[in-house]
Design brief:
32% helix, single chain, binds fructose -6-phosphate, globular, 8 helices, 16% strand, alpha/beta
Protein backbone atom coordinates (compact mmCIF):
# COMPACT_ATOMS: atom_id res chain seq x y z
CA UNK A 1 0.00 0.00 0.00
CA UNK A 2 1.41 3.37 -0.98
CA UNK A 3 0.45 6.40 1.13
CA UNK A 4 0.88 9.83 -0.49
CA UNK A 5 0.22 12.79 1.79
CA UNK A 6 -0.45 16.16 0.19
CA UNK A 7 -0.84 19.59 1.75
CA UNK A 8 -4.32 20.02 0.27
CA UNK A 9 -7.03 18.01 -1.44
CA UNK A 10 -6.44 20.15 -4.54
CA UNK A 11 -2.87 18.90 -4.74
CA UNK A 12 -3.99 15.30 -4.18
CA UNK A 13 -6.68 15.54 -6.88
CA UNK A 14 -4.27 17.12 -9.36
CA UNK A 15 -1.96 14.15 -8.88
CA UNK A 16 -4.90 11.72 -9.11
CA UNK A 17 -5.97 13.25 -12.43
CA UNK A 18 -2.41 13.05 -13.78
CA UNK A 19 -2.34 9.39 -12.68
CA UNK A 20 -5.49 8.66 -14.69
CA UNK A 21 -4.23 10.71 -17.66
CA UNK A 22 -1.03 8.66 -17.71
CA UNK A 23 -3.09 5.44 -17.81
CA UNK A 24 -5.25 6.78 -20.67
CA UNK A 25 -2.15 7.74 -22.67
CA UNK A 26 -0.78 4.21 -22.23
CA UNK A 27 -4.15 2.52 -22.72
CA UNK A 28 -6.76 4.74 -24.43
CA UNK A 29 -9.45 2.05 -24.02
CA UNK A 30 -8.86 1.64 -20.30
CA UNK A 31 -11.68 0.53 -18.00
CA UNK A 32 -12.15 2.90 -15.06
CA UNK A 33 -14.03 2.18 -11.84
CA UNK A 34 -15.64 5.38 -10.56
CA UNK A 35 -16.91 6.66 -7.23
CA UNK A 36 -19.39 9.34 -6.24
CA UNK A 37 -19.77 11.43 -3.07
CA UNK A 38 -18.00 14.66 -2.20
CA UNK A 39 -14.46 13.24 -2.28
CA UNK A 40 -13.90 12.75 -6.04
CA UNK A 41 -15.62 15.97 -7.21
CA UNK A 42 -12.35 17.91 -7.51
CA UNK A 43 -10.70 14.97 -9.24
CA UNK A 44 -13.45 15.00 -11.87
CA UNK A 45 -13.05 18.77 -12.25
CA UNK A 46 -9.35 18.34 -12.89
CA UNK A 47 -9.99 15.55 -15.42
CA UNK A 48 -12.50 17.82 -17.19
CA UNK A 49 -9.85 20.57 -17.30
CA UNK A 50 -7.32 18.12 -18.77
CA UNK A 51 -9.91 17.11 -21.37
CA UNK A 52 -10.67 20.72 -22.35
CA UNK A 53 -7.19 22.19 -22.18
CA UNK A 54 -4.92 19.27 -22.97
CA UNK A 55 -7.15 17.05 -25.12
CA UNK A 56 -7.38 14.15 -22.64
CA UNK A 57 -9.48 11.70 -24.62
CA UNK A 58 -12.25 9.56 -23.11
CA UNK A 59 -13.68 8.33 -26.44
CA UNK A 60 -12.57 4.72 -25.95
CA UNK A 61 -12.83 4.62 -22.16
CA UNK A 62 -15.35 2.36 -20.39
CA UNK A 63 -16.51 3.11 -16.85
CA UNK A 64 -18.22 1.17 -14.07
CA UNK A 65 -19.51 3.02 -11.02
CA UNK A 66 -19.34 1.45 -7.60
CA UNK A 67 -22.90 1.88 -6.47
CA UNK A 68 -26.40 3.32 -6.73
CA UNK A 69 -29.33 3.85 -4.38
CA UNK A 70 -32.07 1.29 -4.79
CA UNK A 71 -35.39 2.92 -5.67
CA UNK A 72 -33.98 6.11 -7.21
CA UNK A 73 -34.57 6.80 -10.90
CA UNK A 74 -31.58 8.04 -12.92
CA UNK A 75 -33.20 11.50 -13.10
CA UNK A 76 -33.51 11.80 -9.31
CA UNK A 77 -31.20 14.66 -8.24
CA UNK A 78 -29.63 12.52 -5.48
CA UNK A 79 -29.08 9.45 -7.68
CA UNK A 80 -25.54 8.53 -8.61
CA UNK A 81 -26.60 8.43 -12.28
CA UNK A 82 -27.46 12.12 -11.94
CA UNK A 83 -24.29 12.86 -9.96
CA UNK A 84 -22.05 11.32 -12.61
CA UNK A 85 -23.83 13.10 -15.42
CA UNK A 86 -23.57 16.47 -13.68
CA UNK A 87 -20.07 16.15 -12.30
CA UNK A 88 -18.28 14.29 -15.05
CA UNK A 89 -19.87 12.50 -18.02
CA UNK A 90 -21.56 15.46 -19.68
CA UNK A 91 -18.31 17.44 -19.61
CA UNK A 92 -16.06 14.92 -21.39
CA UNK A 93 -16.26 12.95 -24.62
CA UNK A 94 -17.13 9.56 -23.14
CA UNK A 95 -19.83 7.75 -25.14
CA UNK A 96 -22.94 7.28 -22.99
CA UNK A 97 -23.08 3.57 -23.84
CA UNK A 98 -19.60 3.07 -22.37
CA UNK A 99 -20.71 4.19 -18.91
CA UNK A 100 -22.22 1.74 -16.44
CA UNK A 101 -23.91 2.35 -13.10
CA UNK A 102 -25.96 -0.24 -11.18
CA UNK A 103 -29.68 0.07 -11.97
CA UNK A 104 -31.43 1.62 -8.98
CA UNK A 105 -34.81 0.69 -10.44
CA UNK A 106 -34.01 -3.00 -10.80
CA UNK A 107 -36.95 -5.30 -10.25
CA UNK A 108 -34.73 -8.40 -10.18
CA UNK A 109 -31.81 -7.47 -7.96
CA UNK A 110 -29.84 -10.75 -8.10
CA UNK A 111 -30.04 -10.80 -11.94
CA UNK A 112 -29.09 -7.11 -12.18
CA UNK A 113 -26.07 -7.64 -9.91
CA UNK A 114 -24.93 -10.75 -11.77
CA UNK A 115 -25.27 -8.89 -15.09
CA UNK A 116 -23.12 -6.06 -13.69
CA UNK A 117 -20.38 -8.50 -12.70
CA UNK A 118 -20.62 -10.14 -16.14
CA UNK A 119 -20.29 -6.79 -17.89
CA UNK A 120 -17.16 -5.94 -15.90
CA UNK A 121 -15.67 -9.29 -16.87
CA UNK A 122 -16.66 -8.87 -20.55
CA UNK A 123 -14.98 -5.46 -20.56
CA UNK A 124 -11.76 -7.20 -19.51
CA UNK A 125 -11.88 -6.15 -15.84
CA UNK A 126 -11.28 -2.77 -14.25
CA UNK A 127 -7.83 -1.26 -14.85
CA UNK A 128 -8.07 1.48 -12.26
CA UNK A 129 -10.62 1.91 -9.48
CA UNK A 130 -11.25 5.26 -7.80
CA UNK A 131 -12.44 4.92 -4.20
CA UNK A 132 -13.55 7.20 -1.42
CA UNK A 133 -13.89 5.89 2.13
CA UNK A 134 -16.75 6.17 4.60
CA UNK A 135 -16.28 7.46 8.13
CA UNK A 136 -16.83 3.84 9.22
CA UNK A 137 -14.25 2.46 6.77
CA UNK A 138 -16.68 1.39 4.03
CA UNK A 139 -15.62 1.23 0.38
CA UNK A 140 -18.36 1.29 -2.22
CA UNK A 141 -21.31 0.76 0.06
CA UNK A 142 -19.74 -2.26 1.72
CA UNK A 143 -20.54 -1.38 5.29
CA UNK A 144 -18.63 -2.84 8.27
CA UNK A 145 -19.12 -6.63 8.49
CA UNK A 146 -19.44 -6.97 4.70
CA UNK A 147 -17.91 -10.17 3.42
CA UNK A 148 -14.40 -9.46 2.21
CA UNK A 149 -15.07 -11.69 -0.81
CA UNK A 150 -18.49 -10.21 -1.65
CA UNK A 151 -19.62 -9.46 -5.21
CA UNK A 152 -22.08 -6.86 -6.54
CA UNK A 153 -25.24 -7.14 -4.46
CA UNK A 154 -27.83 -5.33 -2.36
CA UNK A 155 -26.67 -3.79 0.93
CA UNK A 156 -28.49 -2.05 3.76
CA UNK A 157 -26.97 1.30 4.70
CA UNK A 158 -26.09 1.99 8.30
CA UNK A 159 -27.85 4.91 9.93
CA UNK A 160 -24.49 6.71 10.08
CA UNK A 161 -23.96 6.47 6.32
CA UNK A 162 -27.53 7.62 5.70
CA UNK A 163 -26.90 10.66 7.87
CA UNK A 164 -23.52 11.32 6.20
CA UNK A 165 -25.30 11.38 2.83
CA UNK A 166 -28.29 13.42 4.05
CA UNK A 167 -26.99 16.72 2.56
CA UNK A 168 -27.60 15.30 -0.92
CA UNK A 169 -31.31 14.85 -0.20
CA UNK A 170 -33.93 17.57 0.08
CA UNK A 171 -35.80 15.53 2.66
CA UNK A 172 -33.91 13.19 5.06
CA UNK A 173 -36.86 10.78 5.00
CA UNK A 174 -36.11 10.20 1.30
CA UNK A 175 -32.65 8.70 1.91
CA UNK A 176 -32.94 5.11 0.72
CA UNK A 177 -32.21 2.26 3.09
CA UNK A 178 -30.88 -0.01 0.37
CA UNK A 179 -28.21 0.27 -2.31
CA UNK A 180 -26.63 -1.86 -5.00
CA UNK A 181 -22.85 -1.94 -4.65
CA UNK A 182 -19.86 -3.67 -6.15
CA UNK A 183 -18.59 -6.12 -3.55
CA UNK A 184 -15.29 -6.01 -1.70
CA UNK A 185 -14.20 -9.01 -3.80
CA UNK A 186 -15.14 -7.13 -6.98
CA UNK A 187 -13.02 -4.17 -5.88
CA UNK A 188 -10.10 -6.44 -4.96
CA UNK A 189 -10.03 -7.81 -8.52
CA UNK A 190 -9.35 -4.37 -10.02
CA UNK A 191 -5.78 -4.01 -11.28
CA UNK A 192 -5.07 -0.78 -9.47
CA UNK A 193 -6.81 1.24 -6.76
CA UNK A 194 -6.58 4.98 -6.04
CA UNK A 195 -8.31 5.73 -2.74
CA UNK A 196 -8.87 9.41 -1.99
CA UNK A 197 -9.60 10.75 1.50
CA UNK A 198 -9.76 14.33 2.72
CA UNK A 199 -10.60 16.09 5.95
CA UNK A 200 -10.48 15.21 9.65
CA UNK A 201 -13.52 12.93 9.46
CA UNK A 202 -11.46 10.46 7.42
CA UNK A 203 -8.43 10.32 9.77
CA UNK A 204 -9.72 7.43 11.91
CA UNK A 205 -10.84 5.15 9.05
CA UNK A 206 -7.60 5.87 7.16
CA UNK A 207 -5.46 4.97 10.18
CA UNK A 208 -7.47 1.77 10.64
CA UNK A 209 -7.16 0.96 6.92
CA UNK A 210 -3.40 1.47 6.70
CA UNK A 211 -2.11 0.54 10.13
CA UNK A 212 -4.83 -1.57 11.71
CA UNK A 213 -5.56 -5.27 11.27
CA UNK A 214 -7.34 -6.52 8.15
CA UNK A 215 -10.92 -6.95 9.26
CA UNK A 216 -14.42 -6.93 7.82
CA UNK A 217 -15.14 -4.38 10.52
CA UNK A 218 -13.12 -1.90 8.42
CA UNK A 219 -13.78 -3.06 4.87
CA UNK A 220 -11.11 -0.74 3.36
CA UNK A 221 -8.44 -2.57 5.39
CA UNK A 222 -8.60 -5.44 2.88
CA UNK A 223 -6.68 -3.12 0.54
CA UNK A 224 -3.57 -4.17 2.49
CA UNK A 225 -3.84 -7.31 0.34
CA UNK A 226 -4.30 -5.41 -2.94
CA UNK A 227 -1.20 -5.65 -5.13
CA UNK A 228 -1.41 -2.01 -6.24
CA UNK A 229 -3.33 0.31 -3.93
CA UNK A 230 -2.38 3.97 -3.51
CA UNK A 231 -3.92 6.33 -0.97
CA UNK A 232 -4.05 10.02 -1.89
CA UNK A 233 -4.60 11.94 1.34
CA UNK A 234 -4.58 15.49 2.57
CA UNK A 235 -2.86 16.36 5.86
CA UNK A 236 -6.06 16.09 7.85
CA UNK A 237 -6.99 12.62 6.61
CA UNK A 238 -3.40 11.55 7.37
CA UNK A 239 -3.60 13.07 10.85
CA UNK A 240 -3.76 9.81 12.84
CA UNK A 241 -1.18 7.79 10.90
CA UNK A 242 1.61 6.69 13.22
CA UNK A 243 4.13 6.29 10.43
CA UNK A 244 3.24 9.41 8.46
CA UNK A 245 6.85 10.61 8.50
CA UNK A 246 8.01 7.35 6.94
CA UNK A 247 5.37 7.57 4.17
CA UNK A 248 6.51 11.13 3.40
CA UNK A 249 10.14 10.01 3.35
CA UNK A 250 9.33 7.16 0.95
CA UNK A 251 7.49 9.59 -1.34
CA UNK A 252 10.33 12.13 -1.26
CA UNK A 253 12.86 9.44 -2.19
CA UNK A 254 10.90 7.77 -4.96
CA UNK A 255 13.00 7.01 -8.03
CA UNK A 256 12.23 9.42 -10.89
CA UNK A 257 10.86 6.63 -13.09
CA UNK A 258 8.19 5.89 -10.48
CA UNK A 259 6.87 9.45 -10.40
CA UNK A 260 3.69 10.49 -12.23
C1 LIG B 1 -19.52 6.44 -3.38
C2 LIG B 1 -19.02 5.40 -2.48
C3 LIG B 1 -18.77 5.67 -1.04
C4 LIG B 1 -18.11 7.01 -0.76
C5 LIG B 1 -17.93 7.21 0.73
C6 LIG B 1 -17.33 8.57 1.03
O1 LIG B 1 -19.67 5.94 -4.70
O2 LIG B 1 -18.86 4.32 -2.91
O3 LIG B 1 -17.94 4.64 -0.53
O4 LIG B 1 -16.87 7.06 -1.41
O5 LIG B 1 -19.15 7.09 1.37
O6 LIG B 1 -18.25 9.57 0.70
P1 LIG B 1 -17.80 11.09 0.66
O7 LIG B 1 -16.81 11.21 -0.45
O8 LIG B 1 -19.06 11.85 0.35
O9 LIG B 1 -17.20 11.39 1.99
Amino acid sequence: MEVLIHPTKHAACTLGARWIARLLRQKPDAVLGLATGSTPVLLYQELIRLHREEGLDFRKVTTFNLDEYLGLAPEHPASYHHFMQENFFQHVNIPRENTHIPDGLSTDVPATCQAYEDKIRQAGGIDLQILGIGGDGHIGFNEPSSSLSSRTRIKTLTERTRQDNAPFFANPADIPQHVLTMGVGTIMETREVLLLAFGPGKAAPIAATVEGPVTAFVPASILQFHPKATLLLDEEAAGLLQRAEYYRWVDAHKPTWQRV
